[in-house]
Amino acid sequence: MATAKQNRHSRTRSDHATELTEDYVEAIFDIVAANGTCRAVDLANQFQVSHVTINRTVGRLQRDGYVETEPYGPIELTTKGTKLAKASKERHQIVLDFLLALGISRSTAIADSEGIEHHVSPETLNAMKEFIESKD
Questions:
Q1: pLDDT at 13
Q2: How confident is the model at residue 8 (pLDDT cuts 50, 70, 90)?
């Protein structure tokens, strides 16, 4: 029988596995919204990584059904990718708003929300949302 500690670590490992995917689909979503299109160079600039890293990551995103692209072409989110990007953005915003409501400085809240958003449980996220709404 799995212990609570094993379950906690299992969830953390699972969260880490999806963290990169969430960050990339969210970035693609935002870049397309700002520029009308997203290219590998946009992601390389955003994440400050090499084109090789971008190509490998985009290849995995394509394999997993989150994006569609052709060599040297724009990167487009699939329906699955768009759904994940929107959910990630919403989760990120709730965490950010919660930290701000606690009185955390904007710069710290922005930095902290980047990590917390990937590891917050649905139960905790809902409690954060309710807390924010109660402050209005």
A1: 46
A2: low
The Cα–Cα gap between 18 and 1 comes to: 26
d(CA 104, CA 98): 9
Domain housing 52: 4-135
Q: Please determine, for residue 95, whether its predicted confidence score (pLDDT) is greater than 80.
A: yes
Beta carbons within 10 angstroms of residue 118's beta carbon: 19
SS (H, E, C) the chain: CCCHHHHHHHHHHHHHHHHHHHHHHHHHHHHHHHHCCCCHHHHHHHHCCCHHHHHHHHHHHHHCCCEECCCCCCCEECHHHHHHHHHHHHHHHHHHHHHHHCCCCHHHHHHHHHHHCCCCCHHHHHHHHHHHHHHC
Q: Could you tell me if 95 and 113 are in contact, meaning their C-beta atoms sit under 8 angstroms apart? A: yes
Q: Does the pLDDT at position 1 exceed 50?
A: no
Count structural domains, the chain.
1
State the pLDDT at residue 6: 54
Instruction: Tell me the whole-structure pTM to 2 decimals.
Output: 0.82
CATH number, position 59? 1.10.10.10
